[in-house]
Amino acid sequence: MLLVLEQGLNGLQYGVMLFLMAAGLTLVFGIMNLVNLAHGSLYMVGAYLATAFARWTGSFVLGALLALPATLLVGVVVEVIALRTLYERDHLDQVLATFGLILFFNELVAIVWGRAAIYTSLPPSLSGSFVLLPGLRYPTYRALVILVGVAAAVFLYVLVTSTRLGMLIRAGASNRTMVAALGVNIRRLYTLVFGLGAALAGLAGLMAGPIYAVQPGMGEQILIQVFVVIIIGGIGSIRGAVAGAMVVGMVDTLGRAFLRPTLSTIVSPAAADKAGPALASMLIYLMMAAVLFFRPQGLFPTRGR
Amino acid sequence: MRTMTRAVLVGLLATLAAAPPASAETVRIGFITSLSGPAGIIGKHMKDSVELALDHLGRRVGGLDVEVIYGDDQQKPDVGKQVADEMLKKHKVHFVSGIIWSNVMLAVAPVVTRERVFMIGTNAGPHQLAGKDCSEYFFTTSWQNDQTPEAMGKYMTDQGLTDVHIMAPNYAAGKDMLSGFKRYFRGRIIAEVYTQVNQPDYQAEISQIRAANPKAVFVFYPGAMGIQFVKQYAQAGLREQIPLYSVYTIDEVTLPALKEAALGIWETRYWSPDLSNEANTKYVSDFRKKYGYTPAFYGAQSYDGVMLIDAAVRAVKGDLANKAGMIAAMRKADYKSTRGPYKYNLNHFPIENFYLLKTVRTPEGEFAMQIQKTVFENHKDAYAKDCGMQW
Amino acid sequence: MAISRRAIVLAAGAVLLALVPPVAGLLNQPFYVDLFRRMMIFAIAALSLDLILGYGGMVSFGHAAYLGIGAYAVGIFAFYGVDNGFLQWSVAIAASAAAALVIGVISIRTSGVYFIMITLAFTQMLYYLGISLETYGGDNGMPLKTRSQFAGLVDLRNPSAFYYVVLALLLLFLLLGRRLVDARFGMVIRSARSNEPRARAIGFAPFRYKLAAFVLAGGACGLAGALLANQTEYLTPDFMHWTRSGEIMFMVILGGMRTLFGPVLGAVVLLGLEDVLSALTEHWQIILGPFLVVVVLFAKRGLFGLVSRDG
After folding, report:
1. pLDDT 10s digits, B338-378
2. Residue C32 pLDDT > 60
3. Between chains, do A274 and C129 touch, taking CB under 8 Å as contact?
4. Is the pLDDT at C278 greater than 60, yes or no?
5. Are C269 and C303 in contact (CB under 8 A)?
6. How many domains does chain B have?
7. Beta strands B26-33 and B95-98, pairing class
8. Residue A16 domain boundaries
9. Which residues of B touch C234 (CB under 8 A)?
């Protein structure tokens, strides 16, 4: 039973990471109608910058704090130079141009930091594990990831529901012409939203650094799952991103942990050994196809799309 | 429109004309590896080692001028095959060398050896090429994939370990590694887990390990997967509780990203930078001097590949048409290998020693893999009997 | 004049491609026969994608799936010693078309970015399926022992003969594609792209037409997969990797959507660039990436649009 609880926590933690990525992606899509494959590159940039700043300042926390605005800045620059002209284009152009950006960023990072994975340090206080419940030890850093992720989700919720910026975001998502007609500088709003999304991706990236391998192309490893999240949740909806991230995080984690043992009670253990891992890796895609079959607009469809 | 056509034609002819003419005085080596993408770092170790070998040989191979053409397989078998075709038909190379990945090797080797051109593998050692698909024209300076996990299976058996949890990615190499391990491991295996290829997060599996509480864990996680698994294993606090044994997971490529997370983890390997022999000391120290980092086994094998070619060309006194002579020469492995002297098995795979390595902190405060003991002496691979070659 | 200009480009292209083997032979550079054959195989895949993407407005991000299915159809038959090309290639087409039918039935209900992602999801599933097929080499894939046999009619082991087979198939698909998009069928899928409710209002059921186009494109790409397996003499799940779908898509855009000939040009240029750039520098992707962005931003109608400026 403790094991199920622990795996639940793991699923939650994975879901939180996915949510941070998905929130930025879904905001950008919901408001600017932009499919941004290069979102994973911003995640990678966040991880690299946090590592570089941490090495420079000698402090993990300072590094993280510096990396956030820096990633936001990178996002703004990318938006202004390359993506701004894409908003009016169809999804196809967006997919391709941002695919090109992925190649560019991966190579750029490889040129600056080399192709080898780089070392990311954690302060000793975070690198161990602690006793959460009797008989249940949990890695300290992962617990921190859950806390930060939940805090970010609350921050986003407050931002979107109770601030002027949030009001504009919501208005922009449902009727962009009207917002422009009301005298809002829509271009600046877009840049701001993109920067916010980039910062969220950067946050996910810098938190991923100490757990995952920081290397060129790290963004693509998680990007596809993030797309699954926002598709299941319904594109453009923050609520959908939360739901989708939790569903994918849980299904993926629990599938990996329990699918094979469960299968072996139904079919022979040898067959379960063969089918289990293959099925576990297909699970989230199967789920996405199923969701779309019954609800072609995802779980929380936004209006007008 | 007409200018367009003309431009295309002129361009086409120009590319064709730019191809080098075939000449007898130059040895041409096509070195194929992954240079772009995430695996590009391995390609860099290999390419740098080839260049160092050429430096050591005074930029001549077997007394002839040499030209090395590098090709990028992008880690894709079909691109590798395309590049191999280019090496054979456009550059008209005498040797194809390199290749990191088993699947790329399986696509490339038959194409090369069919043309009676030498394929000098410097990493991948899939069992097909050691067994039924072996060829006179194929040599490798590395190992057969199974040999390294076999050594670990042997060592863990010798230690009397039992109740072991074993893990690998769910792909062909992962399965080969675990079956190689099981070939020599005599203790009890309590779980055999396969994870998704390129999976970034292993916390779910790590929680399962903690719950099952095995006596030891054996894994195969190459590249980024290894960095992720080992970091997460250490963060979960399991490294102190349940000893971790691995193959191809911690090496000089991943160690700089892992550092203290890898301390105390065991590996088996046929080579290590601290292996003490004249050729290796020269290779490792000159490599560090020239490039400023420590080479991994990928590099040592590639260095050896050039040296093996040099010995072959030297033996036939530069007569590159004398292929039988070069085969006979290479079978002797008569060159100063970084692993020390070794012999070739009938299938042209090395018969070599395997050592137990441990990640330690050196007195200078650096992290390094160091040889602890010899596990196998003159170890042969398990597939040579399926290869019909006699010599 | 508009038609003639396009026809000239087409004819010139065909003649140029037909000249590759003799010229390569003359210059003693047989490698270029292989390179151009590979380009033409991807051209067939890109062409089939253009049918649904350009004309049907269905942005499939999973077209590589059929490349893989076609390749595996050939490979699995060969694995069991059946090397009859007629059988292998028909099954390659049929199996890919069948897969396209299943994927299409579910995907075409969605639109926009949902369609992009659901086609991607199906391809990912097939990719993981390929990895788990241990009998057929898992992720390593397996070699194709012999190229497809055509009862002595043509010998694919002869590089030039194989080349002309691919060229003939490419021209055939160009002609068929042209006929198809000009026919009533093509008008319906085009109208469905620009205004689906209107198409429905004037009495067409766009779903069925779109599905039919999707299946046709899948089948054609399956044949490209069968050719690719023969070209590489090796097949792996890597043929179905999602970046491969992206590459095929880029060939279409680079060359020019909704032109059929454009994707052919796109395939030739992209693979040519890859070959030239990767020989120059290992950082070739830093050139290719921005190139993609620039083409999308500034060359809306692709290279073919630049060559045949006639609308």
Report:
1. 999 999 999 999 999 999 999 999 998 899 999 999 999 99
2. yes
3. no
4. yes
5. yes
6. 2
7. parallel
8. 2-117+135-294
9. 77-78, 81, 106-107
* Structural domain span for residue C23: 2-307
Say whether A108 and C286 touch across the interface (CB within 8 A).
yes
Same domain, B358 and B221: yes
Chain B residue nearest residue A141, CA to CA? B235
Give the integer Cα–Cα distance in Å for C200 and A161.
Answer: 40
> Which residues constitute the domain of residue B286?
23-143+276-341
The interface pTM score, or ipTM, of the predicted complex is 0.85
Chain C: residue nearest B85 by CA?
C31
The verdict on B239 and B358 lying in the same domain is yes
The whole-number pLDDT of residue B24 equals: 55
Report yes or no on B113 lying in a domain.
yes
* Same domain assignment for residues B119 and B237: no
**With 0-12 CB in 10 A as exposed, 13-18 as middle and 19+ as buried, what is B314?**
middle
Residues from chain B that touch C31, judged by Cβ atoms under 8 A, are 85-86, 88-90
Q: What is the largest CA-CA distance in chain B?
A: 79
pLDDT of residue B21: 43
Q: Name the residue in chain B with its Cα closest to that of C268.
A: B8
pLDDT for B34-75, tens place per residue? Answer: 988 778 889 999 999 999 999 999 999 999 999 999 999 988
Verify whether the Cβ–Cβ distance B205 to A256 is below 8 Å. yes
pLDDT confidence tier of residue C308, bands split at 50, 70 and 90: low
Which CATH number covers residue B190? 3.40.50.2300
Q: How far apart are CA B51 and CA C54, in angstroms?
A: 48
Of A29, A82, A107, the CB nearest to C283: A107
For residue C192, give both structure tokens: 């469905």
At A253-289, the pLDDT tens digits run 998 888 877 887 877 777 777 777 778 878 888 888 8
CATH number at residue A23: 1.10.3470
Domain count, chain A: 1
pLDDT tens digits, B23-32: 457 999 999 9
B238 located within any domain: yes
Whether B136 and B228 map to the same domain: the answer is no
Measuring CA to CA, which residue among B65, B68, B119, B67 is closest to residue B97?
Answer: B119
- Report yes or no on B328 lying in a domain: yes
Q: Considering the domain boundaries, does residue A31 fall inside one?
A: yes
CATH of the domain at C33: 1.10.3470
Q: Is residue A75 part of a domain?
A: yes
For residues B127 and B191, state if they share a domain: no
- Backbone φ/ψ region at C141: left (φ over 0), alpha (ψ -120 to 50), beta: left
* A210 reaches B (C-beta below 8 A): yes
How far away is chain B from the Cα of C194, in angstroms, using its nearest Cα?
31
User: Within 10 Å of residue A274's Cβ, how many Cβ atoms?
Assistant: 18
Establish if B172 touches chain A: CB-CB under 8 angstroms. no
Neighbouring residues of B35: CB distance < 8 A, sequence distance ≥ 6: B43, B44, B47, B70, B72, C278, C282
Query: Which token pair is B152?
Result: 């670990």
Say if A304 falls within a structural domain. no
Give the CA dihedral A222, A223, A229, A231, nearest 10 degrees. Answer: -160
Chain A residues 269-288 with a CB less than 8 Å from chain B: 273, 276-278, 280-281
Q: Which of A107, A211, A279 to mutate to test the interface with B (most CBs of B within 10 A)?
A: A211
pTM of the complete model = 0.86
Is B139 found in the same domain as B153? Answer: no
Residue B9: inside a domain = no
pLDDT at site B10: 47
State whether C114 and A292 contact (CB < 8 Å).
Answer: yes
Provide the domain count of chain C.
Answer: 1
Average of pLDDT values for A140-153? 92
Q: Which of B178, B201, B210, B366 to mutate to test the interface with A (most CBs of A within 10 A)?
A: B201
Nearest chain A residue to C256 by CA distance is A93
Residue C1: the pLDDT is 44
Cβ pair B17:C233 closer than 8 A: no
- Each residue of C198-211: pLDDT tens digit? 666 766 678 888 99
| B4-23 pLDDT per residue, tens | 444 444 444 444 444 444 44
A65 pLDDT above the threshold of 70: yes
A213 domain-assigned = yes
Contact (Cβ atoms closer than 8 angstroms) between residue B223 and residue B38: yes
* pLDDT (average), residues B117-121: 97
